Every structure is written in structure tokens, then in C-alpha cells.
Write a sequence for this structure.
């Protein structure tokens, strides 16, 4: 008679549960350490030494980037006339397919690089490219060691209702720019976007005369610039 083999008894499960109070205390401790680290990083970034170091890099990067591109210093009258669209154009002819936003982000679909930020950190000015360039990884890498939006201006098809600045008819960012910022140049800049630019079609010459002072990332904005940005 064959007896079936008996299976070994299952070992008692070892429980490593810890009291809830211990887990809660541990989580709180880790969270507190994380908060301390974040606070120290914020303090470092807010320190004058960190900001001056970053701004020195920014000044160097803007100079280096501009040297790689052909940017006309001023726009003569003939070029301004050639770049100006027909007088009958207005925001009513501007749709998402044809109208370009001159304050776009590089990751937006169809984005173009059309300007290089020059000047100083305190007084940045945009120099416009002779020909806008499609955004590529190689082009964005040229901004190192700073972010592309610190040294470049980008345009992209207007997002219209998907943009927080759009009120259903007009771009409020363009409106605030014209209403709050002073004129920064006396003549129309040599901007190749102008025939399809929403700001031009909506606000006309007034927007173009203020556009060169608009920088995507401005570390020392004036009160008017901060209000115009809607931040």
C-alpha cells in the first residue's frame, strides 16, 4: 500500500508590517527633507550670485548666437514697404492656417525661429533674421548653455481658441503690448513675418514698433512688461 506523500506545511508568513504611526512618521520625514531641499534650491536661484552667474551666461550666449546668424541692424524704407501687407488686410482675414503668432514656443507645431535676442539683460532687443528658420533640434542646441527661449524669438500658427490670450476675436497679448509698452524703434523692423503676423493684422504699425522689446523669457521685466504679459 502506497501512502501519498504529504506536502510540507507552509511556513508561517513573516509579517514585516510596521505600525501606521511609524510609516506616517517616515513619510513625513522624507517629505520634510524634500521640502528643505526645494527651499534651498529656491534660495540658491534667488541669490544674487546665482542670478549674476546665469545672466553672465545669458549675455555670452546671446552674443555667440547672434554671431552665427545674419541679422540686419535696421530696416530701410524700401524693405519696410516690401514687407508690409496690403492695407485692406485685418484680423478678419487671419485664420489659424495663415496667421502667425510672434510670441510662440519652440515646441509648437509649425514653429519658426525669426529673431535673435541681442542687447543687454536689462535692455534686450530682438534682431530679426533675414529668413525665418524651421525649428530643429540642432538649431535649439545652438542656444546652449541657456534655454532657447532666452535667446530666440519663435513664431507658430495662431492657436486661436486654444490660447489663453485669445478672446474669440482678438489677441489680448497684442492689445496689452500696444496699450502698455512704449515704442522701442522709430521705423518698422525688418521682420519677414509681417505679411502673416497676427499682431500686425490686428494692431498694425503700433505693434511692430513695440515688438523688438518683447522677449519670451525676461529676467528683469518692467512693471509694464509684466502687466502686458498677463502674468
Amino acid at each position: 500500500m502506497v501512502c501519498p506523500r504529504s506536502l510540507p506545511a507552509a511556513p508561517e508568513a513573516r509579517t514585516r508590517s510596521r505600525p501606521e504611526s511609524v510609516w506616517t512618521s517616515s513619510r513625513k520625514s522624507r517629505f520634510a527633507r524634500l521640502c528643505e531641499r526645494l527651499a534651498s534650491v529656491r534660495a540658491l536661484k534667488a541669490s544674487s550670485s546665482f542670478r549674476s552667474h546665469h545672466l553672465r551666461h545669458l549675455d555670452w550666449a546671446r552674443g555667440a548666437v547672434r554671431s552665427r546668424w545674419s541679422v540686419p541692424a535696421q530696416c530701410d524704407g524700401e524693405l519696410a514697404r516690401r514687407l508690409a501687407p496690403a492695407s485692406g488686410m485685418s484680423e478678419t482675414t487671419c485664420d489659424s492656417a495663415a496667421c502667425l503668432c510672434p510670441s510662440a514656443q519652440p515646441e509648437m507645431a509649425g514653429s519658426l525661429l525669426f529673431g535673435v535676442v541681442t542687447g543687454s539683460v536689462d535692455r534686450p532687443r530682438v534682431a530679426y533674421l533675414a529668413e525665418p528658420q524651421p525649428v530643429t533640434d540642432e538649431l535649439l542646441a545652438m542656444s546652449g548653455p541657456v534655454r532657447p527661449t532666452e535667446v530666440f524669438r519663435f513664431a507658430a500658427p495662431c492657436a486661436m481658441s486654444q490660447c489663453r490670450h485669445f478672446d474669440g476675436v482678438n489677441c489680448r497679448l497684442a492689445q496689452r503690448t500696444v496699450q502698455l509698452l512704449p515704442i522701442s524703434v522709430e521705423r518698422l523692423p525688418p521682420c519677414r513675418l509681417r505679411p502673416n503676423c497676427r499682431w500686425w493684422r490686428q494692431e498694425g504699425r503700433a505693434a511692430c514698433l513695440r515688438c523688438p522689446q518683447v522677449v519670451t523669457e525676461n529676467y528683469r521685466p518692467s512693471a509694464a512688461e509684466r502687466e502686458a504679459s498677463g502674468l
